Amino acid sequence: MDKENYDLAVIGCGPAGLSAAVNARVRKKSVILLGGELCTPKLQKSPLVSNYLGLPEIRGSELREKFLEHARLLDIPIQQVKVESVSPGNGGVFSVQAGKKAYQAGAVIIATGVTVNELFKGEREFTGKGISYCATCDGPLFKDKDVAVFAGASGAVEEANYLAAFCRKVYFIAGAGQRSDVDGLKPGIEVIHDQVLAVKGNDFLSLIQLEGRELPVQGFFIYRDTYLPDRLLEGLVLEDNHIRVDHDYKTNIPGVYAAGDCTGKPYQLAKAAGEGQVAALNAVQYLDRPG
Ligand SMILES: Cc1cc2nc3c(=O)[nH]c(=O)nc-3n(C[C@H](O)[C@H](O)[C@H](O)COP(=O)(O)OP(=O)(O)OC[C@H]3O[C@@H](n4cnc5c(N)ncnc54)[C@H](O)[C@@H]3O)c2cc1C
Fold first, then answer.
1. Domain boundary among 169, 199, 223
2. Residue 34, ligand 1, Cβ within 6 A
3. How many CB atoms lie within 10 A of CB 180?
4. Residue 29 CA to chain centroid, in angstroms?
């Protein structure tokens, strides 16, 4: 496995993550910015931003480009990867896992935004008991079993194909109204255009309730743009489904900070950028602590 070492790893490259990375870089820290595709589809989709100080009327896509340009000017490396987990390692170094790569950092800032979608009914209950967010990590546990993949983000096709190599049956739930990309799916994978209403079972998941039918499965792999933050990092304390932080944007885990929509409402650009800055300055102080 490839490993890279940095002072700070920032997870999520929306306004909060970009602002955190820029501020830590200005303070001369080595930073890696790990973000999903597009560096925030939210900003890209915003037709007109009229409440960002100093830029009275600007298209979201233009503002996003300005943010990215700032990061590029400071030579901040941006990797378009989805982070799967963060684990505290030896000597206070965190290991940030994304696919086959691990990034080591002395401090971490989580800036992963929020999912607009609600969780599926029963999702929390069956997480780790049939529900997974990473086929590469958990897929082999479902050898010869029936599984479904929820395609709420890119990468779902590759994950479904991977599962099809050893699972008995793979369903690909591409959503009801929207047409998720199904190009490249292996033959034999059943594509379903329907809405997930709930997941059910006793001790373990056994059924996905769709609007139009029921799927008896033992495994359900869910792909969304954003993971639940406490799934990224075990032991991270949430409050109302947001990451609990103090005034320094510290989480309950020393060395881990959070900023932006993931810490709570209002979901706004200036709040995200401001919190990214405060989190970065405090992370820098943490990295410079004596001893
Ligand atoms: C259509 C629309 C219009 C808006 N208009 C305005 C406006 O006019 N004014 C205003 O103030 N606000 C507006 N907002 C809100 C604003 O866009 C958000 O508050 C802001 O983008 C939040 O920034 P963030 O960095 O916290 O999160 P996000 O912008 O959501 O960025 C989070 C990033 O983290 C990435 N990520 C998530 N999980 C992972 C992972 N595991 N690994 C790697 N990367 C990950 C995501 O892919 C995403 O790119 C608008 C939002 C929308 C949707």
1. 223
2. yes
3. 18
4. 23
